[in-house]
Amino acid sequence: MAIGISSFIAIYRILNFELSFNTEIPDKDRIYRVYSTFSGVFNGVNRGVSTAVPFYIREHLSNIEEVTHFHTFSAEIQVPREGDTPKEIDNQNSILIADSSYFKLFKQYEWLQGNVKTSLADPFRVVLSEEQAKVYFGEISYADIMGRELIYRDSLNVFVSGIIQIPEENSDFDFTDFISYSTIERSWLKENFATDDWSNTNSSSQAFIKATRGSDIEDLNAQIVFLNDHAMAQEEVDSDWRKEYKLQPLSDLHYNPDLGTFDSGRGASHLPTLTVLSIVALFLLLIAVFNFINLETAQATNKTKEVGVRKVLGGNKKSLVGRFLTESMMVTFLAVIVSIPVAFYGLSWFEEFIPEGVTLGIDEPMFWLFLLSLIFVVGILAGIYPAFVVSSFVPVKALRSGAKISAVSSRGSTLRKFLISFQFLFSQLLIIGTLTVIMQISYMLDKDLGFNGEGIMYIYTPYHESDEKGQRLLNGIQSMPEIAEISVHNSPPARRGYSTSAMTYQTDSAEIKMSVHQKSGDEKYLDFYGIELIAGRNIRADEDALEMLINNTYSKKLGFQNPEDAIDEQVELNDKNYSIVGVVSDFHFQSLHTEIAPMMFKFDDDISCIGLKVEVNEEIEGTITKLTEEWDQIYPDQPLEVYFMSETLERFYRTERRTSKLASTATAIAIFISCLGLFGLISFTISQRSKEMGIRKVLGASSGFWKPSFFE
Question: How far apart are alpha carbons 350 and 308 in whole angstroms?
Answer without folding.
Answer: 50
